[in-house]
Amino acid sequence: MPQWGVADIQALLTARLRAAFDTVEPGADPVLRPSEHADFQANGALALAKRLGRPPRDVAAEIAAVADLDAVCASVEVSGAGFINLVLADSYIAAQVGLLAADERLGSRTAAEPARIVVDYSAPNVAKEMHVGHLRSTVIGDALCRVLVHLGHDVVRENHVGDWGTNFGMLIEHLLDVGETEAVEELSVGDLDGFYKAARSSFDNDEGFRERSRRRVVALQSGDGETLRLWRILVAESVGYFAEVYAKLGVLLNGADIVGESTYNPMLADVVRDLERAGLLVTSDGARCVFPPGFANRDGEPLPLIIQKSDGGFGYATTDLAAIRDRVGRIGASRILYVVGSPQAQHLEMCFAVARLAGWLPESVEAVHVAFGSVLGTDHKMLKSRSGATVKLVELLDEAVERAAAAAGERGAALAPDERARVAHALGIGAVKYADLSGDRTRDYVFDWDRMLAFDGNTAPYLQYAHARIRSVLRQAGDGASPAPVAPSLAEPAERALALALLGFGDAVDAVAASYAPNRLCAYLFDLATTFTSFYETCPILRAPDPERRHSRLLLARVTADVLATGLDLLGIAAPARM
Length: 579
Ligand code: ARG
What we know:
The structure is a single chain. By secondary structure, the protein is α/β, with parallel strands linked by helices. Among the domains are: 6-88, Arginyl tRNA synthetase N-terminal domain (Gyrase A, domain 2, 2-Layer Sandwich), CATH 3.30.1360.70; 167-253, no CATH class. The protein contains 21 helices and 13 strands. It has a four-stranded antiparallel β-sheet. Strands 6-5-10-11 form a four-stranded parallel β-sheet. A three-stranded antiparallel β-sheet has the order 7-8-9. The protein is globular. The structure holds arginine.
């Protein structure tokens, strides 16, 4: 079986060392870690020697002498108090890179146990502008879906659009006041916020409008045909606007992924009935609630999850409970991810707790809140547009592309105009996405145009240019056909460092999936690109001293470009071959 990836190599070395440790004491742990002093270091001999009352260096030397590591390591040496330092053989690393070069997955693994995973993300609200929080959810959710699919999981995307609730009484009445045609016009150009605010203002200032809105909610909930028709107009226009944003962003989400809150409306009565039967419902201040153990407010009083309000209306939580039942029962999910901002942490934890109490979320099914922080302006306050209004998402994305075109300046002067436009799009959208993905998602992040569009530093444009530059070298090298996948030669330290970096791709992808942390892949790609730069500075490729080294370096360059492009693709970021 081929071994590649640093984690695989570590596992191989551990197994070989374990056998050597066994000859001294069966079952002793080698405790092997990557190390700065060598490639790897094992310190297990220290604990073992202590147990045996022997000098640690003697024990380490005995183990080093019998360990079967010749094919893998160039040196196995005892150092310091009794550490065993392992330096990988260049020939071994080269062979691994050769295998990786011939592997279309570039050393990334497939999940040992493929799972059906529902990913709840994006989830904007009808007749309301998508805000930067929805942008974060969309971008992070999209990257996670891509990585999980790549690992072989069965991913079900669900866009839990806010398309139901008491607001719709007011929105429908406002639609009638404005006139259907006019309303459609306003909404189709994406002025969702203007529409919403006007409706809100009538609601707040006009008693008659308020009364009509209340009656309209009742009509909507009882399924009145004309009311539903008007409601559908609001939904269709908003969904059209969301689709425009998704298309600009280049995310996987599409119309088929929309499973709005209204979908669960017919299931809400059953949620209440079954909670009632399970003896979980408590009436508190006229509302029917569940008090899941372990949730309390600041004064230590138990916190309710409101299931049905005193006026008979259902809450946001009731819909989430119905969604959990549907995802587990109908879809058969074994994992559900909620890519939702941190402020909803308690809401989601309480929903999960109640669903577990009710038996709708069995222990075998994992529910995870993939939380993220807020987007701040460069003033470190919540992001606002220049006029102080909420930022309109399509405009923000258009601005990103414009700024990218300006920042690229004369770089793409040789390209045809339409190709230049595509590059600007890739740079602008890539910059916005990467800025969002490259930090610890749980922290707030500062939306800073200059930083995200910089051509150096940990940014999308830096990686995209690094990739395009390598492709250009490969084009100059000749016919465009990739060199035969043979092992490279690693005589130079920079070649060896690049080869080792390439072997880390699979680990980086696994790390993203293990903690839903796309920044792990960003950090890896940035490190790979800088390692390549050092290599390129010391190891000429096209002007290599002999054909053999040229061939070998072209192979390293080709694999680096492939890893960069595949990695960026997993983040949802385009990697044009020419820029
Ligand atoms: N529409 C909600 C909002 O804008 C987000 C929904 C998140 N998903 C969920 N299942 N609650 O805040």
